[in-house]
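Letters spell out the chain; backbone shape is given numerically. Both lines appear below:
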Amino acid sequence: MAVIHRSDPLSRIHPEPLDQTDFFDHLPDSLLLLVFNRIGDVKALGRCGVVSKRFHSLVPQVENVVVRVDCVISDDDDDDSSSLSPDKPRSSASPFSAIFRLLFKPLHALTQLLATTKRSSSSPSSSSSLSITGGEDGEIEQGGVTHHSPTQVLKNFNEIRFLRIELPAGELGIDDGVLLKWRAEFGSTLENCVILGASSVTTDPSSADNNATGVVVEDNGSIPESFYTNGGLKLRVVWTISSLIAASARHYLLQPIIAEHKTLDSLVLTDTDGQGVLCMNRDQLEELRVKPLSASSASKRTLVPALNMRLWYAPTLELPDGTVLKGATLVAIRPSDSKKEVCDVSWVSSAFDGSFGLAAKMLVKRRTYCLEMNSF
């Protein structure tokens, strides 16, 4: 009788069960929250929330949240392709038409955000986008994609302390080569705003090596007469009004988020172009909750109070990195009834970073011009 020899030991036919211990479960919640706070991005956190029940319970405890908006969906029924995205070139326009468009575009820029809840992670029809209109529950269907209001996006986060929202582009349609940047702080109303502009920005690498501190091309320190006659002053007024409208529109749209999230210590609303930055600290956020803002009767934005302004101007400003600003202009703004003096330039020169911060520091050393503006 033939004997069949087994080539494999019994242990191979019936292997011992492997150790199924999940060492990730041994990590403390505090360490996982540290990782989630480093992630920050609200869409990535939404995906993390559907990985496991534990992740789902921890994600709402994240303190540092970043909302990045990918595109803006227009509510124009006549043009379904009128969405604004950072990939679309912005057409050149006069400064006056920029103000007209500005009354509407900030509403496109924040009013509706894509939810990053479980549905957005599992639905192939979801995308990061904005819409100006929405249903009673903060949702709207368009092209098979569900869009949600900012409150809907952030409603599952219970302990947000630091919130940053990034729009896909600045609201102000300016010509190529023109510089316009602003930074504003709000409480229940505007507290201060700094605007830096230049009619043209060019780069001269040859001057970078020989210019360590920046140079103002020689002049007598006064604004030339041509500034008033060739439309230079009018253009700066348009820049100022446009920036203030953009800032006040952003502030108005943040009300529901600020009311809902009382744990906030800091809120920043910016754009990928770096054109405008709205900042609010804990005291300013609390002020808005206690003292409701005054809305403009003309559009959905916060009413801009009567203002005192200081203006500095240089026909040509050469920065150490070779950047040359033509018609460089810096405007510092505070409400007329503010207890803080506009002439205190410490907050003005620190409003911007990098080479533009240096430009601001150079400009405040020049002759100061005082202006006033009525509420609007």
Observations:
- Residues 309 and 333 are 5 Å apart (CA to CA).
